[in-house]
Amino acid sequence: MEECKIRARDQGLRFDDETLEYIVTNRNMIELSPKGMIPTLYDYWVNDVEVLKGQGKYKLYPNNPYETVINSRPAISFYNDNNPDWLNIMIFYHVLGHIDFFQNNFLFKQTWNDDFVGQALADKRLIENLRSEHGRWLDYIIEFSRAINNLVGYFGDLLRNNLPEKFEKRDKINFYFENFLQDELKKDNLFIFNEINIFNNYLKNDEILGETLFLSDVKNKFPEFNLFYEKNKNVEEKSSADILEFIRDNSPFLNKDKNNWMKSVLNIIRNTSLYFAPQIRTKTINEGWASYWHDNLFRKDERIKGHEVAYAKINSQVTSISRIGLNPYAIGLRLFEYIGNLADKGKMNFDFQKINNIEQRDLYDKNTSTGKDTIFNVRRNFSDFTFLNTFIDQDFVDEYNLFVVGKRVNPQKRIYEYYIKSRKAEDYKDMIINSLYHPPIINVDIEKTKEGNLYLTHKFEYKQLIKEFIADTLIGIEYLWGNQVQLETTEIYRKTKSADKETKEYEYRKVLYTVKDKKVSKQNL
Fold first, then answer.
1. Integer distance in angstroms from the first to the last C-alpha of the chain?
2. Domain shared by 131 and 251, yes or no
3. Based on the domain organization, do 194 and 258 belong to the same domain?
4. Are the beta carbons of 484 and 452 closer than 8 angstroms?
5. Could you tell me which residues come within 8 angstroms of residue 391 by beta carbon, excluding any fewer than 6 positions away?
6. Is residue 110 assigned to a domain?
7. Using an 8 Å Cβ cutoff, are 396 and 335 in contact?
8. What's phi and psi for 373, nearest 5 deg?
């Protein structure tokens, strides 16, 4: 495995020297899986249920989970005790791809210096102490907190934690022109246009320091500017806080001395979810990157000799394209190969994009040899959404014969049939993007949250909340808030044009759920 690290570094992968590898049984894998493979994660009854489900599935469908790796310091990976040595070498190359991704992709920046396994152990001990003191109430708080946590995506936190300093400068400049001059100072258009010219001249004279110099000039002219900016920033941060964070910081119920221990539980659940948030947003690109490197590195390793056929079989099972359904390993791997090939031929420029002739596009080759640098840049700066949305185009879809599958009923044979619905890149891209993790956007309406009433608004994106979960989740939120809770959302209803013929036409209705004393009611708005 140390030799694998040397070969991987020679190809440009970067990762810490220390890694930990464990040989475990299938039973170990089943028991660790519900905890995200973190042995020290806090205990909770749902994990026990998942273990029992996993054991039941394994009895029916015995399988070998080849490996798993966690983003810890040092990185930890687990290997099945049924694996032969050659397979563990191939798998370790895959693991090194994951570790390189964890330690270099910008979404994981907040985790680069964290010992999450140690933090999880501290959390586990705290949960055990609280359980011994508060009994079943501890599990109720975990239950309610996890239900709220399902409504939070933490994407805003990932951006705030990872954006470089230059973005804060840009925020200040935007606030200066859009808010400070117009709303606070009530300046006329002539003054504002003059300030814009001054700003442009600063950038023209010094592109690197222009923004800093302009902000220094603003501070000299308006000493109160920073005070207004910080005040506005605090208001924006408060209004954009996720539900879990807002309840933790503002709940009258939790702020009582006897209930302060509950905040610790909310913190544990929120911080744990925030740590794992980058992984759920990089599933395809992460697995594609690891698959790309295990294939490139292991095929050049002399230890593959005598195992070529077995490797080809296992590799095809992992990275073959699914005709029905999606395989993130397959799509991610092929996109990296496709991107590298485009960059090597100089096709990632506007001149190439303007060419419509198919033959000219095929023959276009500037021989730039920039493919490796390009894929490493993609590895560093892209998430699943940006990766798929940027690079899936018609050439990619055609090259790998990809298509969208539809499903219909055959009334004569009384069976379902699968058919090719579309070969267009935009349809294929939409299908994949729609399969990505996308939690609902539910915000706290600060203006309507008053006199003890917590008012939540769901941003409707043509997908309604799952109705059967709304009541129980609201009851949990009411308990943690300590008073009435309201949720404004939109629901979809099917309507018919006539009494004798149903049509699949829908209407959207705004509704307001209210929970008070554990009783949930709904009214149309």
1. 63
2. yes
3. no
4. yes
5. 335, 338, 339, 378
6. no
7. yes
8. -60, -35
Burial class, 502, CB count within 10 angstroms (exposed 0-12 / middle 13-18 / buried 19+): exposed
For residue 23, the surrounding DSSP H or E stretch is: strand 19-24
Residue 396's alpha-carbon distances to 1, 8, 145, 285, 513, in angstroms, are 35, 27, 43, 16, 46
My answer on whether 150 and 167 are in the same domain is no
Strand bridging mode 75-80 / 19-24: parallel
Structure tokens at 463: 């997908």
Q: Pairing mode, if any, of strands 485-495 and 505-516?
A: antiparallel
Token look-up 């947003």 returns: 281
Query: Over the stretch 212-259, which tens digit does the pLDDT of each residue have?
Result: 888 888 888 888 888 888 877 766 555 557 899 999 999 999 999 999
| Domain count for the chain | 5
Last residue of a domain, one of 270, 298, 319: 319
Residues 335 and 273 grouped into a single domain:
no
Is residue 236 within 8 A of residue 243, CB to CB? The reply is: no
Question: 270-312: per-residue pLDDT in tens?
Answer: 999 989 999 999 999 999 999 999 999 999 999 999 999 999 9
Q: Are residues 470 and 517 in the same domain?
A: yes
Q: Helices 210-221 & 165-175, crossing angle to 10 degrees?
A: 40
Q: DSSP state, 17?
A: S
CA atoms within 13 A on the CB side of 417: 10
Q: Are residues 146 and 268 in the same domain?
A: yes
* Cα–Cα distance, 195 to 182 (Å, whole number): 12
| 3-class secondary structure per residue, 122-186 | HHHHHHHHHHHHHCHHHHHHHHHHHHHHCCCCCHHHHHHHHCCHHHHHHHHHHHHHHHHHHHHCC
Find the angle CA(278)-CA(167)-CA(13) to the nearest 5 degrees: 45
Range of 124's domain?
116-154+242-278
Residue with tokens 């590895």: 379
Helix (H, G, I), strand (E, B) or coil at 511: strand
Rounded CA-CA distance 516/483 in Å is 7
C-alpha 140/C-alpha 375 separation (Å) is 46
pLDDT one-digit tens code per residue, 317-340: 889 998 888 899 999 999 999 999
d(CA 275, CA 128): 21
Residue of 54, 53, 64, 75 whose CA lies nearest to 26: 64
> Which residue in this structure is represented by tokens 């004279």?
205
Q: Name 87's Cβ contacts closer than 8 Å, sequence gap at least 6.
A: 66, 307, 310, 314
Residue 399 tokens read as: 């090259």
